[in-house]
Each structure stands twice: as structure tokens, then as C-alpha cells.
Design goal:
CATH class of the largest domain: Alpha Beta
CATH superfamily of the largest domain: Medium-chain alcohol dehydrogenases, catalytic domain
Bound molecules: zinc ion
Largest sheet: 7 strands, mixed
CATH architecture of the largest domain: Alpha-Beta Complex
Shape: globular
Structural class: alpha/beta
Mean pLDDT: 96
Helix content: 10-25%
Low-confidence stretches: none
Number of domains: 2
CATH topology of the largest domain: Quinone Oxidoreductase, Chain A, domain 1
Order of helices and strands: EEEEEHEEEHEEHEHEHEHEHEHEHEHE
Distance between the termini: 17 Å
């Protein structure tokens, strides 16, 4: 653990990629290494020395795809953070922590009725926490939401950054789905950063069957070792073809035709179409992936099916210790799905991850 620094070293998004509709010209986004002052900590705040910060699809959305951040640039992206408390509340100093990706206000009606994960006044590092984000040496955060890491064995603290987002979002989704032991589950997009944890989480919570759908065969084969019982490769298939294959699989394996819990994690039109086609009698479709794409669906079918479509966002800080325990006890695997790189490689890493989704979650570790 280092002491309190003079300055925070950070990689700021000075400007996101912009696209001019009239001229059809796009101006590349810009990340810049800089130093910012260490703010005076407010009561209830601590300063965390960052051990690692995961590169999430959401960061790439802000940087490349015109998704606006709440705090305007320049700001530092990154919301999947683990680290060590170095200043602030005495009781926290020296503790290793995970910083939840979304921190509720705890005062509003949503917070008071158990829906704090979607609190409208919530703070998210790298989006709505002023200029502060995880691609930094240090970050000031409220201490109330921190998840303390104890007895992590030989799992590096940096790897546990994924608990801040990729591994917790699926847990919240499973809760929203009222996932019960013995349930049958489909994960559309099981190969992605969040998707693979969705499969693992469903299995860890006692799902009887987990079927994974995605396009990358190498990653689908890996999913079979981590949570998935069966996989369907959807490359070059439309939603109907995938649905037909799914029903064939159910018949062959003696699986029921009703009550499936379907998790849509791709946030892509194709994935959403597949997920909707799979909705049948008493199904629940959970939407974890974001996109602005419009998909056509006859919602009257929900009535006929007595089925539900439910959106789910982030994860309540209260669930973090449970997910952390699942990660530390190996019920969900972290090391096999994480690759660390020096933070100084952030520009190349963004370019690469934007072009091809990486095999493993990339966690950047401060070196500057
Ligand atoms: Zn994220
Ligand atoms: Zn609130």
C-alpha cells in the first residue's frame, strides 16, 4: 500500500469519438495521460489506490459509439475497480476493496423500496462520479458502498476488479428472474464479458440446465467447461433457425418446453431477436444488454404465453459480498477469464477491444 499521493495520475477521455451526420466524417476520440489534484475528502469518503480496472463494453460505448457520459469530458472512464483504501475514514485504511460500479443515493424512493441498483441519483465511476474513474492511480469514493476483500488466497486483487461489474450484474439479473434451483436457463451471448458470468452464476445458483448461445466456437467450448451444459453456435443463423435448433435440443435431451429463464446479454439486435423468439409459455426474458436497436415483437404473445420481459441494471451493493464469496470459493471462476495489462497500454487496448471482443476480460493495472 502506498501513502497519500500528491497528485492522481490518470488517463482522461478528453473527447469521445464524434460523428458528423452531414459530412459523414468521424473525428477520433482522444485519451490523454494527465495529473489531477487529490480532492479534499468529504465525510464518508475514502481515497482508493487502484489495483486494477476492467475494460467494459460500456467504456467502449462512451469512447466510440456516442453514448454520452453524465459528467462531461474531460473525465476518466472505468467503473470496474478494485484497490486499497489509503486515506479517509480510519476504519477503512489499509483495507482491500471492490468499488461497486453503481452506488445508490440511499435516500430516494427507489433506494428505499429495494430498487437502489436503478437509483436515478446513483454515482458511477467513469460516468457520473465527477471527473473520476478507474483508469487512474487513485479514486475518491463513498465508503458506505465498498465491499471489503478478505482472504483472497492467491487470487490477485487486480483480478477481483471484475466483481465490480461483469460478475455482479448477472447476480442482480438472476435475482430479478427469481432464479431457483432446478430452473432451466438460456444465456444469449454467453461468450461475452458479462455473459460468461451469467452462465456461471446461473449454474452456481442451482440451475438444472444452462444453454449458451453465441457465435465464437472457441469461447462456446470454454463455456461448456464453465456453467453451460449445451451450446448453440448462432453464426449465420437467423432467430428462427436458432429457435428451431433450441427446440430440437430440448426434445433430444428431454428438456421441458415451458418456464425457461432467458438472459439476453448481447445488447445487439440479432441477440435480442433470438431471445424474443425463444420466449414461450411462462418464460421470463431478462434484458441485460443495452442497445438503441429497435426490434419488432407481437407483445400480445406475452399474454398468450403468460410470459414476462424484464430489464435489469447494475447490482445492489448489498449483493457484492455474496458474489465476492462465490468468486473466492471458486463457484464462479475469475482467473481463467481475466487478463491483466499495464494501464499505459490503454490506448492500444481500447483499439483492440473495440475491433475484436477479447477472449478474457482485460483489467488494466496502474503503471502510467
Ligand atoms: Zn460495465
Ligand atoms: Zn436513490
Amino acid at each position: 500500500m502506498g501513502g497519500i499521493p500528491d497528485k492522481i495520475q490518470t488517463w482522461q477521455m478528453v473527447q469521445p469519438t464524434t460523428f458528423n451526420r452531414e459530412t459523414k466524417e468521424s473525428t477520433p476520440g482522444k485519451l490523454e495521460k494527465t495529473e489531477i489534484p487529490v480532492p479534499e475528502l468529504q465525510p464518508g469518503e475514502v481515497l482508493v489506490e487502484v489495483a486494477g480496472c476492467g475494460v467494459c463494453h460500456t467504456d467502449l460505448g462512451y469512447f466510440y459509439d456516442g453514448v454520452p457520459t453524465v459528467s462531461k469530458p474531460p473525465l476518466t472512464l472505468g467503473h470496474e475497480i478494485s484497490g486499497t483504501v489509503v486515506a479517509g475514514d480510519e476504519a477503512w485504511i489499509g483495507k482491500e476493496v471492490i468499488i461497486p460500479a453503481v452506488m445508490p443515493c440511499r435516500k430516494c424512493i427507489l433506494c428505499k423500496t429495494g430498487r437502489g441498483n436503478r437509483c436515478l441519483a446513483q454515482k458511477m465511476p467513469g460516468n457520473s462520479l465527477g471527473p473520476y474513474g478507474g483508469f487512474s492511480s487513485h479514486i475518491p469514493v463513498p465508503s458506505i458502498d465498498l465491499c471489503e476483500v478478505k482472504d483472497r488466497g492467491d487470487i490477485p486483487l487486480s483480478h477481483l476488479a471484475v466483481v465490480a461489474d461483469a460478475a455482479t450484474t448477472p447476480y442482480q439479473a438472476a435475482k430479478r428472474a427469481d432464479l431457483q434451483p432446478g430452473d432451466n436457463v438460456v444465456v444469449v451471448g454467453i461468450t461475452g464479458g458479462v455473459g460468461q458470468y451469467m452462465g456461471q452464476t446461473a449454474k452456481a445458483l442451482g440451475a438444472k440446465t444452462v444453454i449458451g448461445i453465441a457465435r465464437n466456437q472457441e469461447k462456446l467450448d470454454r463455456a461448456l467447461k464453465f456453467g453451460a451444459d449445451f451450446v448453440i453456435n448462432s453464426t449465420d443463423k437467423d432467430a428462427r433457425a436458432v429457435s428451431k435448433e433450441f427446440r430440437g435440443l430440448c426434445k433430444e435431451k428431454g428438456l421441458p418446453g415451458t418456464g425457461w429463464k432467458i438472459f439476453e446479454v448481447t445488447g445487439a439486435k440479432g441477440g435480442q431477436e433470438i431471445a424474443l423468439t425463444l420466449v414461450s409459455f411462462t418464460s421470463k426474458l431478462l434484458v441485460l444488454g443495452f442497445s438503441l436497436a429497435k426490434v419488432e415483437y407481437a407483445i400480445g404473445r406475452l399474454m398468450a404465453f403468460d410470459a414476462e420481459i424484464i430489464g435489469t441494471w447494475g447490482c445492489l451493493p448489498e449483493y457484492y459480498p455474496i458474489v465476492l464469496e462465490m468468486a473466492l470459493s471458486g463457484k464462479i471462476n475469475v482467473p481463467e477469464f481475466v487478463e491483466t495489462r499495464p494501464m499505459s497500454a490503454i490506448e492500444e487496448t481500447f483499439t483492440e477491444a473495440h475491433k475484436t471482443p477479447p477472449m478474457k476480460r482485460i483489467v488494466l493495472t496502474p503503471d502510467f
